[in-house]
Amino acid sequence: MTLHKDEIHADEVVVRSLLRRQRPEWADLTISPAGAGTDNTMYRLGDQLLVRLPRTPGNAPAVRKEQTWLPRLAPHLPCRIPEPVHEGAPSSAFPLAWSVYRWIDGAEAGPDSVTDWATFGTDLALIVQSLHSAPLMGATGQGELSWYRGGGLRACDRWISLCFDNCLTIEGIDLDIPHLRQLWRSALALPEPSGRQVWLHGDLKPSNLLVRQGKLHGVIDFGCLSVGFPDAEHAPLWDLPPRARQAYWNAMSLDDVVWLRARAWAIAVGVSGVSYYWGTYPLFVNECLSRLHAILEAADER
Length: 302
Description:
Layout: H1 12-22, E1 31-36, E2 40-45, E3 49-54, H2 61-73, E4 84-88, E5 98-102, E6 107-108, H3 117-133, H4 157-168, H5 177-188, E7 198-200, E8 209-212, E9 215-219, E10 226-228, H6 242-252, H7 256-277, H8 282-297
Helix pairs in contact: 3-6, 4-7, 5-7, 7-8
Pfam family, one: APH
Organism: Streptomyces achromogenes
Domain Aminoglycoside phosphotransferase: 30-261
């Protein structure tokens, strides 16, 4: 499935070719699809490894970023995170950098895997607090560690307004766009974030949260790792049930202004996802629509 105009093709044959040239000791291991996101495609390699290949040239710098920072962050986090074991070089078979990681067992967070959503929300808050408290180790929100979700909402207003306009042109969309736009605009009037910048995962949606024996066990996909203000870090909470959201709120002791800015980031990510992927990635569009409907349903809670 091609999602982007500049997407680089990668399949099991490509992975096998890369391994034969760069890690021949792994070349005869079984290779099987292990999922795909908007930025990467993944293949399980044997029982213990995972190959991750960026979809576009713009996603490739995340390989070096993860290779550099994940080993340094791991000791500060109370959960499993990806452990890089090989940084693949570009080649004629695949012209971008790519990665191999240790395999982490677990199921995507959801009603079939999570035993208690309130506990899950509290555990997620502990992980986020640990990440945000981790020393920066000289890192700054510049270059590869700079990302728009670590800044203020107003810088994204022109882009998100166009996404709202695009959504209004989609036939058959079951979504109260004017109400969402009102919530977005109200957040633009809030004070911009200030204070200490922190490490950000950037995309803590359920598919990046691994569950074992009913409890949160691991966090994966640090491709959006950055340094910035933490408001957008809380945005994926609207992907989770209300009990998890409330437990997270309580554990994080978030004030109303931060919560409303986080909700605006959730709207921005959802609306932009619907606008960009409507005709190419229905599964992701459905995730965005679910998030936006949850926001509308909870709009009067705060």
